[in-house]
Write a structure and sequence with these properties.
This is ABC-2 type transport system ATP-binding protein. Pfam families: ABC_tran. This protein is α/β, with parallel strands linked by helices and 323 residues long. The chain has two domains: 3-226, P-loop containing nucleotide triphosphate hydrolases (Rossmann fold, 3-Layer(aba) Sandwich), CATH 3.40.50; 231-297. Helices cover 30% and strands 26% of the residues. It has helices at residues 52-59, 81-84, 103-113, 120-126, 142-154, 172-187, 199-205, 223-227, 272-285, 300-311; strands spanning 9-18, 26-36, 41-46, 67-72, 88-91, 160-164, 191-195, 208-213, 216-221, 232-237, 256-261, 264-269, 291-296. The strands form three sheets. It has a six-stranded mixed beta sheet with strand order 5-6-7-3-8-9, with helices on both faces. Bound molecules: adenosine-5'-triphosphate. Adenosine-5'-triphosphate (ATP) is lined by residues 18, 26, 28, 46, 48-54.
Length: 323
């Protein structure tokens, strides 16, 4: 297989242990398989401490796996770092720049260390920081620092971009701008591997995703594949049981599970249209007004919460449960 026809990232049986090999050590990554195809945007999701950053560091070549094999752009990213590094861009969770440098100076420092670097101003323009070029790094807001980190990651026009929680700390407008930039980079053929705690971000951007829990892959696929089979939800409030309605009994709703707290009813169903039709037909026949009626398909967030709870061995929390 030629270099360009291989996946951008292939990891098989990846393990990462912190500390000694005996029982005192900690296995942060436990037998992970992962493939990122060229030109796709792949999101690595998981609960806190699932092992996302530990995995990203292995793929970035910043640490060697305890066991397992990794090929990044056809090379071992740790042993053949010199071959891989010029072709990848890394946006770390925190890449401390000296606070006294101006934004332009900080980027120019990196230009000197980067092969085939874009001009500093071009990278700053990409992330919307050109007008902040003379400001000192210590005076930037948290969101502006994230964008500076991204500018540096983009300096070398990377084929493969690693983004570790790229939009943490960004306001909604800056987040939308980063999403747009990531979409444009992908449209130009850049492969992107990102971690995020924002499920909406993964839903918006990811071609495929993998959810980790305690060092292992729990589920992977496209957003649609991960959501498939997860129940949709209908919720509404029944009117007071006294008065003209008398005692109300819901109709039989096949493939649905009904829970009620007082007058508030939640229906989980794998056949949203059919269940909603049954319910609305029943309400019309009995002239029942369903208060605050809401019907929605399963979202990645709901699927993630359910998958994480299942992986932790607990029953999934009811959707909307404030606990
Ligand atoms: N240097 C280290 N020494 C020992 N344990 C570590 C070290 N770094 C991370 N860990 C542990 O490994 C596990 C995975 O951490 P990691 O940072 O990879 O998770 P994560 O999925 O990125 O978490 P988060 O979403 O909170 O950033 C955690 O339990 C963490 O405490």
């Amino acid at each position: 297989m030629t270099d360009s026809s291989r996946p951008a990232v292939e990891a098989v049986g990846l393990h990462r242990r912190y500390g000694p090999a005996d029982g005192a050590g900690f296995d942060a990554v436990r037998g992970l398989d992962l493939t990122v195809h060229r030109g796709e945007l792949f999101a690595l999701l998981g609960t806190n401490g699932a092992g996302k950053t530990s995995t990203m560091e292995l793929l970035e070549g910043l640490a060697a796996p305890t066991a397992g094999g990794i090929r990044v752009l056809g090379h071992d990213p740790y042993r053949e770092r010199a071959a891989v590094r010029p072709r990848i861009g890394i946006m770390l969770q925190e890449s401390g720049f000296p606070g006294e440098l101006t934004v332009a100076e900080a980027v120019r420092c990196w230009v000197g260390l980067t092969s085939r670097a874009r001009p500093a101003d071009e990278a700053l323009d990409l992330v919307g920081l050109l007008d902040r070029r003379t400001v000192r790094v210590k005076q930037l807001s948290g969101g502006e620092r994230r964008r500076l980190d991204l500018a540096v990651a983009l300096l070398g026009r990377p084929e493969l971009l690693f983004l570790d929680e790229p939009s943490t700390g960004l306001d909604p407008e800056a987040r939308a701008a980063v999403w747009q930039l990531v979409r444009e980079l992908r449209a130009q053929g850049t492969t992107v591997l990102l971690t995020t705690h924002y499920l909406e971000e993964a839903e918006e951007l990811a071609d495929r995703l993998l959810i980790m829990h305690r060092g292992r892959a729990v589920v992977s696929g496209t957003v649609a594949e991960v959501i498939a089979g997860r129940p949709s939800r209908i919720s509404f409030e029944l009117p007071e049981r006294s008065g003209p309605y008398g005692d109300l009994t819901l109709p039989p709703l096949p493939a649905a599970e009904v829970t009620a707290t007082g007058r508030r009813v939640t229906v989980r169903t794998t056949r949203l249209q059919e269940t909603l039709t049954d319910l609305l037909g029943w309400a019309a026949r009995h002239q029942v007004a369903l208060g605050a009626l809401d019907a929605r398909s399963a979202s990645l967030e709901e699927a993630f919460l359910a998958i994480a709870a299942e992986a932790a061995g607990a029953a999934p929390l009811p959707i909307g449960d404030p606990r």
